[in-house]
Design brief:
Layout (H helix, E strand, L loop, with lengths): L2 E6 L4 H5 L13 H13 L5 E6 L3 H13 L5 E3 L16 H4 L3 H8 L12 H23 L4 E6 L1 H11 L17 E6 L4 E8 L35
Parallel strand pairs: 1-4, 2-3, 2-4
Antiparallel strand pairs: 1-5, 5-6
Helix pairs in contact: 2-3, 6-7
Length: about 240
């Protein structure tokens, strides 16, 4: 199955102002975020990207613009299910102010029980994002082959929840995962299990390019090498 390159949007004006943006319209990249986005095509240059999928929010579209300008033949798809969590009445409020809300403790320590007033639950957020990725994996494989690589630009909580799913972690542990603005998290999906290849990476990504397994690697039916005991250094 395909390799998913999850890109968190670049630093936004809401990040700079320490505001919980949610789905508030008009949240753009700040100057640093624009620089991060401009560097993204170079970081992804070695990867044979088949398609790009984006959250509909402005900061994700702005993050992807330099990549799409550099690769004008890349198809862009918008996916509502990887949009930011609907924080409801919390949207647009200062994080320092929200820290005093009793619900914030639940969000941090027991997120599977957290539902935002006027918004959605964190369980619903994860479920829709996981469903979207599974469907896009099948679509990308059908259209581009099992070794395809595709990019999905989304948001911090969405990416963290997808990593938790890939690792078989309960949602209550997802706050232990971190992804900086414009960082890359890569997950290679197979028929039996996903492999987390990168988490919050801000450096070189050339080694994520697909490769044929060497004859002595003992590839599985899914085209993946068996993970080695003691850390799986030779695993993909």
């Amino acid at each position: 199955m395909p390799t998913l390159i999850l890109v968190r949007h670049g630093r936004s004006t809401a990040n700079t102002a320490a505001v919980l943006a949610g789905r508030t319209p008009g949240v753009a990249l700040d100057e640093r975020g624009a620089e991060q986005a401009a560097a993204l095509p170079g970081r992804l240059a070695a990867l044979p990207i088949a398609a790009v999928v984006s959250s509909p929010l402005q900061r994700c579209r702005e993050t992807l613009r330099p990549l799409l300008d550099a690769r004008p033949d890349l198809p862009l798809h918008t996916e509502e299910r990887i949009s930011e969590c609907d924080y409801g009445d919390w949207s647009g409020r200062k994080l320092a102010e929200l820290a005093d809300e009793p619900l914030m403790t639940v969000v941090q320590q027991h997120p599977s029980a957290a539902a935002f007033p006027g918004g959605e639950s964190m369980r619903a957020m994860q479920a829709r994002a996981v469903d979207a990725v599974r469907e896009w994996n099948a679509r990308i494989e059908a259209e581009h082959g099992e070794n395809a690589v595709y990019v999905m630009c989304s948001h911090g909580d969405i990416i963290k929840s997808l990593v938790a799913d890939a690792l078989g972690m309960h949602l209550d542990l997802f706050q232990r995962v971190h992804a900086d603005p414009c960082s890359v998290t890569a997950i290679r999906y197979t028929r039996l299990r996903p492999f987390l290849l990168r988490l919050g990476d801000t450096g070189d990504l050339a080694s994520l390019a697909p490769r044929e397994p060497a004859p002595d690697e003992g590839g599985t039916a899914d085209g993946e090498a068996d993970a080695a005991v003691g850390g799986g250094a030779g695993a993909p």
